[in-house]
Amino acid sequence: MPMLLAGNLFTVRCTSCGFIEENNDSPICEALRNRG
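^ that's the sequence the OP posted. Answer follows.
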């Protein structure tokens, strides 16, 4: 069974319900646009 050691920058989890999905958008949300 493979184990994820370092995490995945594209896997996002909802903090309310725990739903997990892959998100390859850049930026990941509008609040992060033009930051960094």
